[in-house]
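Minutes, project check-in
Item: structure for the 392-residue chain
Input as provided by the requester:
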Amino acid sequence: MKSIKNCENLNQKKVLLRLDLNVPLNNGTITDETRINKILPIVKFLLDSNSQVIIISHVGRPKGKVNKDLSLKPICENLEKKINKKIKIITNNIFELSKENLFSGHNNQIIFLENIRFYAEEETNDASFAKHLAGLADLFVNDAFSCSHRAHASVSKITQFLPSFAGLQLETEINALKKVTTEIKKPISCIIGGSKISTKIGVIKNLIPKFDNIIIVGGMANNIISYKGNKIGKSIKEQNCENIIKEIFETSKKYHCKITYPSDVLVGKNMSDKSEIKELDNIKDDELILDIGPKTINEIKNIIESSKTVLWNGPAGYFENPNFANGSHEIAKTIIKKNKDGSIYSVVGGGDTVSLINKISAIKNFNFVSTAGGAFLEYLEGKELPGIKALN
């Protein structure tokens, strides 16, 4: 990939900048600004290079139709305050825009196009739509790694019509993921959670040959606890996963990768209940497993202590209730402690995990925090991402 850092002359160049500003909105109010904060370096870099910046992004799933509730306006206003520059949002039909009139009539150096997913052509990866977009600029920068698993017009098709470059954040993301997939410092451990084991099986299978430890927590661990002959009460469990779990254990033996799952748990009668420590052979039919227990926490902490690299995707329990947040908090604290003395390289990804570390104001205490969901997991599975392939 060509990096925008190595582009020789950006002075007065019109730059089409693809970002992922798909932030959570509640009645027009942004509830998590992490994705906006992460794009500040590329925006400042281009403005300092005296480029004219045209931002493309999306919010939500408007399905090719204009939806005022999914406007980029609140995000545009938020970014204005962060960079202390006026930003105009262009609400005109994209097909009526031309390169010559985009910046006419105002002194703005930076503009927003309205939600690109208001156009059905975006998600169908329409070539003529991509060509029209390309006609608005001199070059294209993809700084939206988290959208790069999508074969969409403003992510992959557009590179056929413009000189194209990787953005600063996209490069950082790929370099961080390379450190846990190809440029590995061993021992390397993966802590993986989530509710469905079937959605993570590709990741687990791809990582087992490279990793020393795979630690399975969260709702997906219930499948393993049940597979091993224990009762899980009324806990969340995915059906028909026995063959998947059997394959995980067989593959791990072949590659000498240790699979760790909870040896004790915290339960409650409902999601807002108090917590009670339970051994695996003592779970009642009316109980829910909602966190890992103290023995499991100690086992995971020991694994982290002996690791040089850690990948974490998915909290250990139902952290929204503080009574079931201890497992996730202890994992975070152990990684942070190792990070501070420089004895570990840590990569964290996944929406829930990012929410968790935001809650404890620890986002700066990890080597890399990825806001990418699907793209993060598909990269870890070893899949080729259309947006990355298009830049190569």
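Outcome recorded: The first helix runs from residue 34 to 38.
No further action items on this chain.
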